[in-house]
Amino acid sequence: MARGPFDTLVDAARFGFDAADHKPLLEAWQALSLADIRSDLAERLIAAGIDEGGDEARFLLNHVLAPASLAQALADPALFSWQQAERLAALSWRRLQRVPLSQVLGSQPFWTLDLAVTADVLTPRADTETLVEAVLSEAGVDAARLVDLGTGSGAILLALLSERPGWNGLGVDLSDSALIVASGNAERCGLANRARFLQGRWGAGLADASADILVSNPPYIVADVLAGLAPEVRDHEPALALDGGADGLDAYREIIRDLPRLLVPGGLFALEIGYDQGAAVSALAQASGLVGIAVKADLAGHDRVVIGRRSGGDR
Ligand SMILES: C[S@@+](CC[C@H](N)C(=O)[O-])C[C@H]1O[C@@H](n2cnc3c(N)ncnc32)[C@H](O)[C@@H]1O
């Protein structure tokens, strides 16, 4: 692809420029209209292997133009300043390096929440909302102690707490840096008064019968498959959040073995799974003496959640 003024913008953001005069950036910027910038950026994103380059160019522009929208700025070019062009160039440069859009923008919508995302956490996926829905449809509304093992950004924990004002939640993660993001998200969502966080290995630091409801989206990708993933995932998301070991089931073995101890009698569990793991994870749950085991599919029809209970209780 021929180099044009937009490349000069991106190069200026990449290599820095003399803050005293901003000359290269200003010259490149003055040679472009907003419509040119939009189509040029879309083309460049697509050429970098990002299929949704058109949509992403719009997201990036809306992000730097806020509170004005892209549509408003196209109608009134005065709404787009060269400082915004500089910011756009810096963000575009990162995205062209295949840094995930959520990390470039710094946040990602999940459920009804807008969560901060950094390179220390898995970007919350729309598929994971299947787990949130499954728990809400199985659990009552009474006061409950919710535990989320491998909480990452806090996505599942916070989505559930946002729907159930009577619940209190504990998010556990091995990663200290993920827990900083999760507790920031609890503040950001106004849920910090009902969310606690604990560093540790799955449920090892938790007392017997400490969960009425236990959820987890553990790492479940087969180790050999990791190298073939998209660069956004392979190079920019934490391996600790992805690598499920030789058969993808390492974390499930550890978590499920401990579920009868962690749950109260009759307590509910829900685990996110890979599309082909329903039978294997259900068998692990059965072998651990758990009951009422069912597999739920996501909107695409793929198996996505294994749900069940500890026996006993009156539920
Ligand atoms: C697939 S991510 C899920 C993140 C978040 N719950 C979500 O659904 O978006 C798995 C999480 O488990 C954490 N993790 C990995 N191994 C762990 C372990 N042994 N004990 C606790 N957490 C662990 C990772 O740091 C990561 O945050």
Report on this structure.
With 315 residues, this protein is an alpha/beta fold. It folds into two domains: 5-97, no CATH class; 106-309, Vaccinia Virus protein VP39 (Rossmann fold, 3-Layer(aba) Sandwich), CATH 3.40.50.150. The protein is 42% helix and 18% strand. It has 13 helices and nine strands. The chain has helices spanning 5-15, 23-30, 34-47, 53-65, 70-75, 82-96, 101-105, 129-138, 155-163, 176-188, 231-236, 250-262, 278-287; strands at 107-110, 113-116, 144-149, 167-173, 195-199, 211-216, 263-272, 291-297, 303-309. A seven-stranded mixed sheet has the order 5-4-3-6-7-9-8, sandwiched between helices. Strands 1-2 form a two-stranded antiparallel ribbon. Helix 1 (5-15) runs antiparallel to helix 2 (23-30), helix 3 packs across helix 4 (53-65) and helix 8 (129-138) runs parallel beside helix 9. The longest helix has 15 residues, at 82-96. The relative contact order is 0.09. S-adenosylmethionine binds next to helix 9 and strand 4.
Sheet with the most strands: spatial strand order: 5-4-3-6-7-9-8
Tell me the number of strands: 9
Strand proportion, as a percent range, falls in 15-25%
Structural class assignment: alpha/beta
- Count of DSSP H/I helices: 13
The sequence of SSEs as H and E is: HHHHHHHEEHEHEHEEHHEHEE
Query: What is the correct CATH architecture of the largest domain?
Result: 3-Layer(aba) Sandwich
CATH class of the largest domain: Alpha Beta
For the termini, the CA-CA separation is 63 Å
CATH T-level topology of the largest domain:
Rossmann fold
- Low-confidence segments: none
What do we call the CATH homologous superfamily of the largest domain? Vaccinia Virus protein VP39
Q: Taking Cα atoms only, what radius of gyration do you get, to the nearest Å?
A: 23 Å
Q: Identify every distinct bound molecule in the structure, by name, code or SMILES.
A: S-adenosylmethionine
Instruction: Name the shape in a single word.
Output: elongated
Query: What is the domain total for the residues?
Result: 2
Helix content: 40-55%
